Predict the 3D structure of the following.
Amino acid sequence: MELFKSLIVIIMSSVLVNNYVLSRFLGICPFLGVSKKLNQAVGMGISVIFVMVVATLVTWPIQHYVLERFNLGYMQTIVFILVIATLVQFIEMLLKKMIPALHKSLGVYLPLITTNCAVLGVTIENVSELDYGFLESVVNSFGCGLGFLLAMVLFSGIRSKIDESQIPASFKGLPVTLIAASFVSLAFFGFAGIVENLFA
Amino acid sequence: MKNKNLSILLKGLLTENPVFVLILGTCPTLAISTNVIGAIGMGLAATAVLICSNFVISLLRKFIPDSVRIPCYIVIIAGFVTVVQMLMQAFLPELYDMLGVYLALITVNCIILGRAEMFAGKNGPVKSVLDGIGMGLGFTLALLCMATVREIIGAGSFAGIEIPFMKDYTISIFQKAPGGFMVYGFMIALVYAVTHGKAPRKKEFSCENCPSASLCSNCQKKEEA
Amino acid sequence: MKKYLRSIISLTAVCAIVALLMGVTNYFTAPIIKQRENDAANEALKVVLPDGEGFEKIDISKYTLPTTVDEAYSEKNGGYVFKMITAGYGSNFVIMCGIDSDGVVKGTKVISSSETLGVENEYGDKLVGVTVETVDGVDTVSGATKTTAAYKNAVKDALMSFDILGGKEVDIRDEAQILADKLNAALPQGEGKFSKEFISVRIDESVSAVYKAENGAGYVVVLGEIFVGVDSENKVVTADVDESTKTTATDTAKKLESVTLEELDITNLTALPKQIQKVFVTDEYNYVFEIRCAGYGIEGGNQWHPASGEYIFIKLSLDKENKIIDCITVSQGETDGIGSVCADESFYGQFAGKDKTNYSQIDAISGATITTNGYLKGVQAAFEAFEILNGEE
């Protein structure tokens, strides 16, 4: 029960309070680039959740059973990025062979995720700053991905409204998008403190 | 010839500023711009990686086959990032703690991979180093602009030194996430207003090498223009 | 094929060169990083032991130290720094304690704490300069007894650990542990589970307390410093006890075993004080009262310490001369760490032997006037009830 509670706290924290996009600024490029259409936003979000969880499943054991054991902590960044890149390639090939339908809907997003800093960020944070156990790390990765999906979906709705409005010329395009992102991020401030009092 | 080298150096600073004009490296720009010291540290760390990676990649450009180009670039960049990380942890531990995970994330900063792909992979070492210096300083300059605004308004100080009047009237939201998005939005709008929207539409500077290019709305717009 | 080979070779070569570069950098920076981390850790240790230098962590698993010790560091001049984790008023709190080579506390610091009162930081200064002999003499702070007592005990544990690491033999058991060990030695059949027996009959004056084995194996009769075990067949099992002590112990056990309590019907005795819940009478005509007192849980309450709505329940026995034989707190809902002291033997144990003229001459619970007053009213009610019951009869 305690474990279940702590996992709920981790998810709530990573989705709402420490949302990767809106309060940690990780994964901004796809957030700004691919959030224009709802279906693209959902596809990208689901792919990110998938890759984050799979990447954590692989990188956590690597960190704890290989890098730390052989005193190679400094190789972390290079190993993780290569593992993630290889993994994404591998998943794409596998999907293409095994589940072509899923590959058709998600396949286009997978290569974009290799250089997504949110994926590298979550795998590194799980083993360094947060120092979670295996289960907690996987749940945290899932939560971060979910937070990314949430931000993408919410924001795609807002962007469709922005397109219809009259905006000063120099604010057209990216500037107004960023200012809208600022307000969404401000709205997420309302979740501050929710985690501490979740089971109080 | 000399003039041309100078223009390579300068374009990164102004006309092709990676952050404000090319809209690259947004994550660290937003995250590490709450204070001036951190911004300069981040900018210089990225500059160091950029210069080294550009130099090495331009030297190896004829040796590396096209098919494994990108993995090689990533390995080289990640290697230099780790070297910078270790040096910083040893000699500037406070800065190291301040930058946290974002230091490791220089690896996936699109500015560095983008420059490797677009410039260092096609030009000689001297030019590549100049490009690295220009782009790196441009990134640092942009971070510095953002951080100056956010630190003065948000914390009433500059580089940690308190400003007598401002510190009584701080708007702390500028230190937080919404302030980052807001200031960045206004900065880009300012650049658009000054350049009348011309600069970012030049096709050859677009982020077409970014893996997101096929879907990215920013990129598509530029191609249309 | 050649193309693939070239790709593989070049990628491997790049990886190898980069790995070499990283390895070389690591070779040069790793010692510096380690040194820096050590320095940073030492800074924290220097706060509590300013003259210390060259701190080194000790493997404490080799020693039997009090359980509150989490980490220990030695330094060149023979001093030690201990990191202690102890339970305070709220959850755990963590303190550092620096002790110099003479066994004198040079500094203490609270590292993390969720204590509500904030007194512990000032209290730490009071503990500077104490030694293992003088630490007990430092008073706790009234109103924050539990927090400051926990702090003091942690420092005491640190001082004892200092002696242990210095090679001295130290008894690290706390009072409860010592008592439990003595009881177990006196009556091993009790299997370590004893509860204090409530006395409702007059027993020999030399007996200071009686403990009953929870499994019914017998009693442990305490005569001053001597613990005498009496088994269920009323035989003394403790060795090296002289005959007169043996007789006292067996008599006491026999008497307690044979006590019968008869409950009186008090429904018609409306004159009895309202605190009196139940009255029993023994075959020696001593009274046993179950008393409900209104303490802070009923009468008190403020925004920091809300009233719990719970009464204090006490059990009290009076002999024929209207003198208290024994008194015990059964349950209470007073403020934790303040009024809850009324459940400690150090408080209720004071009433034994008192009568109605001097029962209020006890050490009140500091910072808990409402609790003390409610308790005293409950005791007073017993004396009144005694008179009413005797008058009726």
